[in-house]
Every structure is written in structure tokens, then in C-alpha cells.
Design goal:
By secondary structure, the chain is mainly alpha-helical. Helix content is 68%, strand content 0%.
Length: 125
């Protein structure tokens, strides 16, 4: 069934870990790449649909739109965290370059209108 949909992404979906700020981005990015698999499972696998239907629910079209809209925003912080934590000695000039880059990327996203209202709320904070 899923092989017929020719889903090219073969990676695993990691779970969100509260103490690891980048895990949310990694989880959502991988889940979004498997979006068609989730849609097909909902349609063809009644056990999957029943289990999630009784709990927090199946991902809706609106959920997938929301994930797609915040992924660019979360990727900015993922890249910055990866860059800063990848250095043995984080110096103020590296830190400030990342802060400026985050600011520039957020402004670019806001100007492109490719973001959700959540991005505007996060920018205000």
C-alpha cells in the first residue's frame, strides 16, 4: 500500500524530548516528510485510526498546514543551535553572528508571507 505512493524519505521519526530543544524540529521535519504515509494509514488501517482517534487524534489537514508553516522558523533555531553547540569554545563573536543571522532569517520569513500567525507572535516575544 505505502510502496505504491513512492514515498522517497526513508528516515525515522524521532520523538520529541522536552530537554532537547531541537528534538521538536527533528520530529516535525521527519513527520512532515512522511505525511503521505500518515494519510494512507488513516485511510487503510482502521486499527491506527481507532487508536489515535480515541486519544489525541489523527493529524488533520490543518495540523499539516501548521507544521509546514512553522518548519522554516524552527529550522533557523535548529541551525543556530547546531552551529553554537558544535564549537568547543563558544565566543561572543560566534554567538552574536548567530543572533544576527536569526534576526535576518526571521525578518526574511515575515516579509515572504510564508509563515503563520504563530511566527508573528514568536517575533513579538
Amino acid at each position: 500500500m505505502l510502496k505504491d505512493k513512492k514515498i522517497e524519505y526513508k528516515g525515522h521519526i524521532c520523538l520529541d524530548v522536552e530537554t532537547r530543544c531541537n528534538s521538536t524540529y527533528l520530529m516535525l521535519d521527519a513527520a512532515f516528510k512522511h505525511k503521505m504515509a500518515f494519510v494512507e494509514l488513516e485511510f487503510y488501517d482502521t486499527k491506527y485510526a481507532n487508536e489515535l482517534g480515541n486519544g489525541i487524534g489523527l493529524p488533520s489537514y490543518k495540523d499539516w498546514e501548521y507544521v509546514e508553516s512553522i518548519l522554516p522558523f524552527l529550522s533557523i533555531f535548529y541551525e543556530a543551535t547546531f552551529c553554537i553547540s558544535g564549537n568547543s569554545y563558544v565566543t561572543s563573536n560566534i554567538y552574536m553572528l548567530e543572533v544576527v543571522e536569526i534576526w535576518n532569517e526571521i525578518n526574511h520569513l515575515l516579509k515572504s508571507n510564508a509563515t503563520s500567525s504563530a511566527t508573528y507572535k514568536m517575533t513579538e516575544k
